[in-house]
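Let us practice reading a record.
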Amino acid sequence: MSGSGSSLRVMIVDDHPLVRSAVARALTGDGMTVVAEAATGEEAIAIATRVAPDILLLDIALPGMSGVHVVRELAPRLPATRIVMLTASSADRDVADAMRYGASGYLTKDLSAEALARSLRATLTGELVIPRRLAARLLARMLPRGMSEPAADGVPVDRLTRRERDVLRLLADGLGDRDIATALTISHRTVETHVSSILRKLGVRNRSEAARRYRDGA
């Protein structure tokens, strides 16, 4: 992450050049620098893993791989990057999936340039930025189904099984599920099962938080 006196490095992912240009103009010179752009999910993953921006602004509707799948791939690989959705979609499913997989915020394209910059800075202090109307709908969608927040006092990392610790270590190193499966000579589905168990036992909401717990030695 850039230091307090440094310009924040932002990457914009949107398949519309005019949108990317408008967002870049809104942010440049406001303590932020656009260091990369991408038009597809595949490009986003390839470029972001190389550039490691402070903030990744990501649309949901992309050609090929969706923005939600990009979050799922990049959140564990780039735990220091704040991934913020910037999209026209306010669908409950999109909001829930993006948050579940590690997005630090969910913003819609009708907000002002000033509100966008303010929201991006807020993510750097750990705030989850999301319009109140979407947050209220998300809670209403989740809670009746028993999807309450995980317990904050999950078990310590050293209480995980040996295989779960192996998976968590590689996850914290930035590997995706397929790379972890190859490294441990297990199936991709088995990795997903271990990750699900790790999140539940640690009482965290996503892979980024699990990776942070590992690095903190909790």
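A brief commentary: The two ends are 22 Å apart (CA to CA).
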